[in-house]
Records
---
Amino acid sequence: MALNTESVVADFNLLTGLSKSKESTKRNLSRMKGMFHDDLSFDELVNSESDPLVYEFYELDIPQTAGDILFGTSIVYPGKVGGEYFMTKGHFHTILETGEVYYCLSGDGYMLMENPEGDWKIEKFEPGQAVYVPPRYAHRSINIGEQPLVTFFAFRADAGHDYGTIETKGYRKLVIEKDGKPEVIDNPKWK
Amino acid sequence: MALNTESVVADFNLLTGLSKSKESTKRNLSRMKGMFHDDLSFDELVNSESDPLVYEFYELDIPQTAGDILFGTSIVYPGKVGGEYFMTKGHFHTILETGEVYYCLSGDGYMLMENPEGDWKIEKFEPGQAVYVPPRYAHRSINIGEQPLVTFFAFRADAGHDYGTIETKGYRKLVIEKDGKPEVIDNPKWK
Ligand SMILES: [Mn+2]
Ligand SMILES: [Mn+2]
């Protein structure tokens, strides 16, 4: 009895992270209103550069049970909004007690994490570096380089995404360029 | 409150799969007695070539809870035993209803899968190809190329490994070289 159940396979280019067989979900800058600290620069960039693509990622059609694993790539493009690097929205998992691994395929950046208790941490992404996001931590990828930041991710398929908490409260910390280098500062807009 | 909990990060070279910071688990051929179909060739190779390294992989120190994810790389070296390609032992998960993703970083090979009901499937590994092993399927990586087969894997941290079933019963299918090409055949030793 061969091959009688459907297999899930997917191609993700090791350099670009892009798939030839799957469709990505795209997040243009206009979809991130209020998430960067400098609203004036945000508005300027959304209007002047025809709403640049900030990041894209893949959501595969895998059963969302506690025994399954969802996986794919995330690609954060290079860019800045008023000195703040392009990044993903960031999210908690709806099932808070679930972690996630990110393995960096190319690019240069950070994984910024914080939990509901206010603990936070930041880890470096570079090609070949894996970062584990422990359970309870919101996570956001930040591209500090000139090339796309490409990561392969995997997490429990029933974990779910809570974007609302970050959209409402913001992150406690943010990463901006200062004197040509990334610096972690307190988010002035954090509630 | 920064960085007050320990982070888990790990480097895995994108080409070789090897880590400079972590120690791998190694499987030399002598540890796989009875798993290849040709016992004579097996004995010859174990003795004559000083017990070659067949594969190695990483087991990270992550809490083994249902919400955590274990991850690492697996490296299967090129080689054959009596026409049968070098491969991993293969295993079921102790919690049978848990899946696993493998993302191929380099090399050329297959993922061979079978479930307790006797369904089986085989998927191709090549650089950039992700293969999802659904819950209930035993899984074994097979290197059919001339270079190491390197994959990045991730699964639920409490899944556990059942190697015994495969060691006792064997796989229903095996992959051997025939006329210079890989061919899937019934395993004559399967019980
Ligand atoms: Mn996540
Ligand atoms: Mn496994």
---
Amino acid sequence: MNGAHLPGPAAPTPSALAALHPLPLAAVRLTPDGLLGRWQDRNATATLPHCIDQLDVQGNLTNLRRVTGDSDAEYRNMWFADTDVYKTLEAAAWEIGRTGGGFAEFLTDVAALLEKAQDADGYLDSYYQVDRREQQWTDLGFSHEMYSAGHLIQAAVAAYRATGSAQLLGVARRFADLLVTRFGPAGADVVDGHPEVETALVELYRLTGHEPYLAQAKRSLELRGHRRLGEGRFGPRYWQDDQPLRDAREVMGHAVRQQYLLAGAVDVAVETGDAGLLATAERLFTEALAHKTYLTGGQGSRHKDEGFGDPYELPPDRAYAETCAAIGSFHTAWRLLLATGHAKYADEMERVLYNGIAGSTAVDGRAFFYSNPLQLRTGHDGSHEDTPSQRLSWYSCACCPPNLARLMASLHTYAATGDDDGLQVHLYADGSITAGGYQLAVRTDYPWDERITLTVTAAGGPGPWTLALRVPSWCRDARLSVNGSVVRTGAQEGYLRLNRTWKAGDRVELTLAMPARIVAAHPRVDAVRGSVALARGPVVYCLEHADLPPHLSGTLFEDLELDLSRPLELGTGTLAPVTIRVPVLVRDDADGSLYRPYPPSAVGDGRAATVPAIPYFLWANRAAGPMRVWIPVAATR
Amino acid sequence: MNGAHLPGPAAPTPSALAALHPLPLAAVRLTPDGLLGRWQDRNATATLPHCIDQLDVQGNLTNLRRVTGDSDAEYRNMWFADTDVYKTLEAAAWEIGRTGGGFAEFLTDVAALLEKAQDADGYLDSYYQVDRREQQWTDLGFSHEMYSAGHLIQAAVAAYRATGSAQLLGVARRFADLLVTRFGPAGADVVDGHPEVETALVELYRLTGHEPYLAQAKRSLELRGHRRLGEGRFGPRYWQDDQPLRDAREVMGHAVRQQYLLAGAVDVAVETGDAGLLATAERLFTEALAHKTYLTGGQGSRHKDEGFGDPYELPPDRAYAETCAAIGSFHTAWRLLLATGHAKYADEMERVLYNGIAGSTAVDGRAFFYSNPLQLRTGHDGSHEDTPSQRLSWYSCACCPPNLARLMASLHTYAATGDDDGLQVHLYADGSITAGGYQLAVRTDYPWDERITLTVTAAGGPGPWTLALRVPSWCRDARLSVNGSVVRTGAQEGYLRLNRTWKAGDRVELTLAMPARIVAAHPRVDAVRGSVALARGPVVYCLEHADLPPHLSGTLFEDLELDLSRPLELGTGTLAPVTIRVPVLVRDDADGSLYRPYPPSAVGDGRAATVPAIPYFLWANRAAGPMRVWIPVAATR
């Protein structure tokens, strides 16, 4: 079976609440002429092979071989290390679906290992299967057993959709059936401390049509919020268990858990026709964007509990902004986009993709940030794994790298959707799109170039068909032409819609003006008061120490201020195709005291200079050194 | 034996490196007419009894009775819960020395319990003495066994100095002797993950003259910094073990550990005549004040590891500023003051006392902050023990309350010192001072009133004698008169020195002008850019929600800005004798978006109002609500 006609991740059934539907896996192809296509290729040639290597090096596969009796090594890594295997499997599956090649043996071999390791009743968790059998299901708050089952299920769904292989699906269904038996209506009223199984079970339902999976996902969602998990280390808010999701007024607690829970809630809502639950998810996601999200789309302000902070608590230096939380936000946004068709969710997908997510991977694809701060200070102590000065090749909690791999391998599936009227393009990248009998060639160097050209290479039916093109919320000047003629059309819900009869050769050109933009934060964001950020198109920029001329290096990086009396200009660089040339003044603070009378004594004018800002997602690819997204604005002197 | 002629905490021997020496315990008496005296009385009548109650309620004493076979209850609380007992004992001892009354039975009973619980070889640690004997000394990174020994020793030294009782001293010496035997030059090269035993052993040496205690303290100090403790949870910097203290360029890691280590280093340095080590401690303490200290004197910017952050990383909302770190800073400053005579250390004692330390205790003396943020936001999640919205009566890790009790019970001993020429007054409070045959009556309502009157009630020898009065660094206008005549005398090293022949009835009046001050931070402190703080005298002020008129309450607290076009004025209040009446504008931010184009669209003028600021140390004594020390400055409109 060829899965190319099945959809990618998170594909609602025909009866679901849905404004838009995903396209089949093979509908969108991205080329390496565009940035997203290059990211996908880098993932295939570097990140995914690196993850597969690490599964060997770090002992994740050996953990499973302990279960099958093929190893007598000690268990290694986090107790949920199986999920690194599952996410890597999922990535391999999507990659096979995308390009056909390279990872089939890995997928088959590991699926066979999992089949062999699985208990007769369906249980599978290498941490608990050898010398901790008596502890199975005894510590659901932290054991991650259902979380792990969820990632197994997602890998199996991906393998089936992308390769047609049902081998892993059998393993996943046996585990899912065990969950239904053990924790279904006839079983114990428990939830896992880490949401994930909810969205996975809905996906499994979507693939199999087996209603108990959907019911179990819904049950898991409804059981949460009644303090069944106890206090744990950080209180019930940490795992969103202090009140039912429907009653929550804000996102709270562990950011990844919150986003995975929201994604599961949307999945359950659309498949069960629960408009109230969908509204809850929309409300909470919107609340997060309004009060608890970094300019990069990153979420989670606190290191201690990897959690959301209070409203407007968004310190750039201590931003946790975990890579997996950004991926979780992307997943939730995708589900809300499908459910509602609202462009704001695609806007958020774009923002977090180009910034909070993209910044986590090194240019070589083999090193990663787990936390993604928006500032690194001179004198930063990078000795902690949660605050490194540069990306690390792996982590003791290695959730992020394989999560990146599975997202990147499936990235093309998020670029466009369909509905009864036509096609919606959400993410712009060089490639091709096939939908409803139409074929489009997309040529663009987005996000560096502001022009996107879409050429109809094959037209579908004779009647009219609507091509909807997202105008990002950051864009103040979108120009659209068809076959060279400028089209005047108002954006609706963030989309420019061209409803017409198409013929092969028709050419649409969308130009999204991309001047360098200066961005301010709500004044309640105390941590960046008096500072602004720079952006162009969807890309947030930053100043990095490596770009300073030698006479401005050292601690003077801390004294740079934006000089608004001179214009920003665009430039080019080796690391980044487009830089922003930033006029700065080097603050001259003769008074070195930490606290001093106000107003301070007169200071000099500061030395004027111009330094390039680079895309935030490219920081920390050169010598380790300070960086900042938010730049103090020089006061009028 | 009456200990009134022995000194208080941290008393160098006559041969130590010392510019100043502590006065005998009975030399300074504070009256309840002054704030410090009232704090001491509140400690005696509320905090200390509360701590003693909690030792029963929480099971700390039961833990010890398990060892003596008088209880078969489970061990409760942190594994180092014995230290809560020791610090409470120390507080009781100082209090007995101060007023004679009330706690003798507690001291005697618990000392007897400890005697009974102690092993024959001197070991004493109720966590490890019953069912974890085989784990003794096996986990020095986290076991706190030597840390616990240190607090036992300090309690014993206090009991001897304050009450003359050697009962506890016997217990402490036996444990100290065990440490010397087991971990001395003939023993294992190990250090404890939490410094404390160093300063305690030096104090024990000071009291007993037994050289091996000093040698063991020095050895413990020198063994640290060679990564013997391993990585732990937060890496070797966490416990100051990544490099020898002498090589350290900045304070780092867990703030309490760092300060306790510095205090021990000063003690070792002055007793061994190690000027280089003393210089190291001065350098590191000064570095902390220059880059890593809150305006309140609090230290520690991070919740995750209770640690210092990077230089200038001083977020007011996420300030950890642990009470014990503030107390540790006070202890280190006291030792440096004695060693050097530099007023800057007394300045720091004053700052951290009136702000970082004082703010931790509720006005009723029975509730405490463990972390001491400088800002609490509207919508704050106070459900975590490390970020409560109001003070808690006790903590699962209860280190801070008894630490406050022992400091407050001995507070009078830090007010003044002597040297060969006379007396130095460092902390001003209503009371009396006896030194060198002179007696002084001190009358003042400091820090509310700017006048301090010192009257000689008994004169010592016939020759000249120097009365040195500290002029705090915050003071820009100090006026001094003797017997009504203004004296022109330049401050030297921060002290106004009156060298003259004194007679009974001589009257010195010092006036330290206390206008409301506006304080700015170094521009590298990104977290408070565009904001200022208010202070008067040594007291930092804050805006608190409870003081807002109803029409400005709710989330509008977040929108207050300081209106510098109108003057600050002083006022009075019920909670605070002196308030600062702060002209504000309520920012009118019609654009609610989290991020927006810069410059923002025009905003209104804001509503003008005047709200009282209260001393920071009095916050959170009314209804829970937001608070801020750093106030945004309204831009010119």
